[in-house]
């Protein structure tokens, strides 16, 4: 009786409207709903867990190679510091010889039109003292939300540094001590909303901020760096400092794909269920 009714209702809806391609679970044309109930239109899913993480990087990210004279040292991003490692992606700052440039690693999304979303990185932090490992959005030095790990601070394997730049007050900068061991793999997440940034470890909220929430379309980045500054990164590290990243999943809205275009794509795809993330 019941199966019959379901069949009838499926047939009923099929004849009632235009014939759409059959929707299926792998189509997320109607977007993604996150655990807080927010809907995002687009995604960039980078699974680095195969044997060739670099080819996954190259689909959506640029490996950075810029350099800059800092107060204490010249800091040089190098493609040698983003590489395949342990069936994941390594991002590294190289052990410093004691003289000359500090060689660091960074990836940045090709897209710079990302405006709000939920951003998740599954990673283990470096164990060598003297680097900053960051996962963040960036438009400018005052339009930036950061998750950072500082390997030179006491108890660094349990402290996460959260910031909405300029990060100069107690309401736009927070250090949170977590029970998770950050040198093991954990999912670090920030939800960038119009009026609030909310931060998570393994899906559990750690803190949130309403001060200085960025409002400009941005890139998303991950890096491991040191400039020797004794108020932040410390270092440079004596040995290689390596972060290992298994995935970065970005679900977001952008300035290139508006609500109207999104709704029309969703309809054209036959209105498949919103994907839960
Ligand atoms: C599911 O939908 C997507 C997008 O419409 C399509 O590319 C894919 O081939 C479909 N998969 C199956 C198994 O039908
Ligand atoms: C550091 O390197 C510079 C340039 O390569 C060299 O002139 C200088 O002597 C070096 N200093 C030390 C302490 O090794
Ligand atoms: C941090 O770095 C300084 C110098 O760079 C060093 O003296 C200190 O021992 C380091 N602290 C920790 C906790 O490693
Ligand atoms: C924080 O930095 C911003 C931007 O530079 C500045 O306008 C503000 O006054 C600073 N706040 C404090 C408390 O220093
Ligand atoms: C957070 O940690 C950083 C680095 O150790 C330190 O400079 C800063 O003062 C701390 N902030 C707070 C609010 O404790
Ligand atoms: C939305 O995007 C479509 C396709 O790019 C464009 O034609 C339309 O003008 C945009 N609508 C708004 C309100 O920006
Ligand atoms: C993101 O896009 C969805 C779908 O268009 C919309 O409902 C939501 O309000 C947008 N979120 C933000 C923060 O703009
Ligand atoms: C929207 O649909 C168009 C036409 O099918 C397709 O080319 C485009 O990739 C879709 N946009 C997104 C962001 O899914």
From TrEMBL:
Source species of the chain: Neolentinus lepideus HHB14362 ss-1
Xref: SUPFAM superfamilies: Concanavalin A-like lectins/glucanases
Chain coiled-coil ranges: none
Entry annotated with the keyword NAD: no
Protein name, UniProt field: Glycoside hydrolase family 16 protein
Pfam family, one: Glyco_hydro_16
GO biological process: carbohydrate metabolic process
Signal recorded as keyword: yes
